[in-house]
Write a structure and sequence with these properties.
Radius of gyration: 22 Å
CATH architecture of the largest domain: 3-Layer(aba) Sandwich
Order of helices and strands: EHEHHHEHEEEHEEHHEEHHHEEHHH
Strand order of the largest sheet: 2-1-3-4-8-7
């Protein structure tokens, strides 16, 4: 017994995809970037996309990108009519201002987008709420003392402000940090999950915890997918079939002037799971970067002389003349670091190149039939305003994680509704 959901700050659709695979019915999604919305629309709205699940998009909402404050202002009356019909309000608001991997800024304007989520909570009052974000949202910002020096005393984590707002709105709030690798994703990626349940549904429950049976649910989830319980999926198990070694390179089908591997077949259980019923058909977004000879030589030296699976140390950065701090040659036999939106942050474990978007997608647990649309990458000041394919894949909620949480919510929904029937 699943219900209806709305996805806010939906990006390229990773959260929606996972919830749909868990049996939830998507009404619509809100996303302001045109490139990310193009991916979401192709896969989860249009018949051409191969996803077996589609949104039940309402006639009053245009099928186009829209900024959330404009969405609320324009469709307030339409949203009010959804009250009592919606079961879950989900979302992964932009996390760049909280990320421990980036430049944490307490005054990043994207941090304040949560207020629109809370605004919709108060308007719709669904039984369940789901928020997904980076671990850093639960870590307090350091307060600056006079003169710009850092004060050792930390302020309150932003997650506590969100929790307080939801409690004031009549919800009981529960949180847990889930590592992506715990649910079969070949990536360490710790994610902060906040579930909230409307307080009137918990009147007969004391010390209720929706995560109390986490390990049993996790075991059942991995068994269903035929993935190991005690061993993490490694980078090699995720992307070895996309290596260029021994493969013919052909013209990239969606990037003129570039090459891609001629795909043959999956090699591991994880690859077969994500390849699905494509029967050897090449997934999209396989474009290989056109590195200069100097860059390829440097990458080859890094791969052969530096430790894999960790960022280059200061000594190695100086040796290779690198100013950027986050350069990681991936370890083939470990899960990946948390992916970022910058494609040159990670090097392939055995080939002197960055990863392809499809390799990003594999490390995020996207099925091979899920197609990414729009330009591959962007640079300069456009990085703050555009969401190309690498950004869509790197920023996404991993579908396996969303599916796992969706199944957990399905169980809660069934249990609580049976008790109140």
């Amino acid at each position: 017994m699943s219900g209806k959901f709305i996805d806010l700050f939906a990006g390229g659709g990773g959260l929606s995809l996972g919830l749909m695979l868990a049996g939830w019915n998507g009404l619509f999604a809100v996303e302001q970037d045109s490139l990310a919305f193009g991916t979401l629309k192709f896969n989860l709205l249009e018949d051409e996309g191969l996803c077996p699940h589609k949104y039940n998009w309402p006639s009053w909402l245009e099928k186009s990108p829209i900024e959330i404050s404009h969405f609320i202002e324009k469709h307030g009356k339409d949203l009010a009519r959804l009250k009592g019909q919606l079961d879950l309000l989900a979302g992964g608001p932009p996390c760049q201002g909280f990320s421990l991997a980036g430049r944490r800024k307490s005054n990043d304007p994207r941090n304040r987008l949560f207020k629109h989520y809370v605004e919709l909570v108060e308007l719709l009052r669904p039984p369940f709420l789901l928020l997904e974000n980076v671990k850093g949202i639960s870590v307090a910002f350091r307060k600056k003392a006079k003169g710009g020096t850092r004060n050792k005393r930390a302020g309150k984590p932003f997650s506590e402000h969100i929790k307080k707002n939801l409690q004031d709105a009549g919800y009981q709030v529960f949180t847990r940090l889930i590592r992506a690798m715990e649910v079969g994703i070949p990536q360490f990626r710790p994610r902060y999950i906040m579930l909230a349940i409307r307080r009137d549904l918990l009147k007969s429950h004391r010390n209720f915890d929706p995560f109390h049976d986490f390990n049993r649910r996790r075991k059942a989830f991995l068994e269903t997918k035929r993935l190991p319980l005690k061993r993490a999926i490694t980078v090699r198990q995720a992307i070895s079939d996309l290596e260029t070694k021994g493969k013919k390179l052909v013209c990239c089908v969606d990037a003129a002037g570039s090459k891609q591997v001629e795909y043959s077949h999956p090699r591991t259980n994880y690859q077969r799971l994500l390849h699905g019923e494509l029967n050897g058909t090449a997934p999209n977004s396989l474009r290989l970067a056109n590195h200069r000879d100097k860059t390829t030589k440097r990458f080859r030296q890094i791969i052969s002389t530096c430790r894999h699976g960790i960022q280059l140390c200061e000594k190695d950065r100086k040796r290779f003349g690198l100013k950027k701090h986050c350069t990681v040659p991936l370890d083939a036999d470990q899960p990946s670091h948390t992916l970022t939106t910058l494609p040159d942050d990670f090097l392939h474990y055995s080939e002197p190149r960055i990863l392809t978007v499809r390799e990003y997608a594999r490390l995020q647990s996207f099925p091979d039939w899920y197609e990414f649309k729009g330009k591959y990458a962007t640079g300069g000041d456009k990085r703050l305003r555009e969401c190309p394919r690498y950004t869509q894949a790197g920023n996404a909620v991993p579908p396996f994680l969303a599916e796992f949480v969706g199944l957990l919510l399905t169980d809660l929904n069934r249990k609580l509704r049976q008790e109140t029937a």
